[in-house]
Design brief:
- 0% of the residues lie in helices and 65% in strands.
- By secondary structure, it is mainly β.
- It has one domain (6-104).
- A hairpin with a 4-residue loop joins strand 8 and strand 9.
- The two termini are 18 Å apart.
- The mean pLDDT is 94.
Length: 105
């Protein structure tokens, strides 16, 4: 059996994906249930071999949007001793959950 995968770039990060994978990426401007196509494919494996782009390969990766949400809360605490200065802030990073449906070469 041949293992086909692709390396895509989105949100300033690179992801190695294959069909059926579920990935969490930086929030995309799409609604749940829609499909999203990645055109920025950096590398792809084919039955003939491995193709690396300069900088991209002519291939597309299609994914279904499962949900948009927020990640776990991060607590940031700033403290300066002897100054009675404390600051507590929190942050939840928004994300988009995708399921890869196809890799077209």
């Amino acid at each position: 059996m041949l293992f086909v995968f692709a390396i895509i770039e989105t949100g300033g990060k690179q992801y190695k994906v294959s069909e059926g994978d579920i990935i969490y990426v930086e929030k995309l401007d799409v609604k749940e249930g829609e499909t999203y196509t990645f055109d920025k494919v950096l590398a792809v494996s084919t039955p003939e071999g491995f193709k690396v782009g300069n900088p991209t390969v002519k291939a597309t990766v299609t994914a279904n949007v499962v949900k948009n949400g927020k990640g776990p809360k991060l607590h940031i605490i700033r403290y300066k001793p002897k100054k009675n200065e404390k600051r507590h802030i929190g942050h939840r990073q928004p994300y988009t959950k995708l399921q890869i449906t196809s890799i077209a070469i």
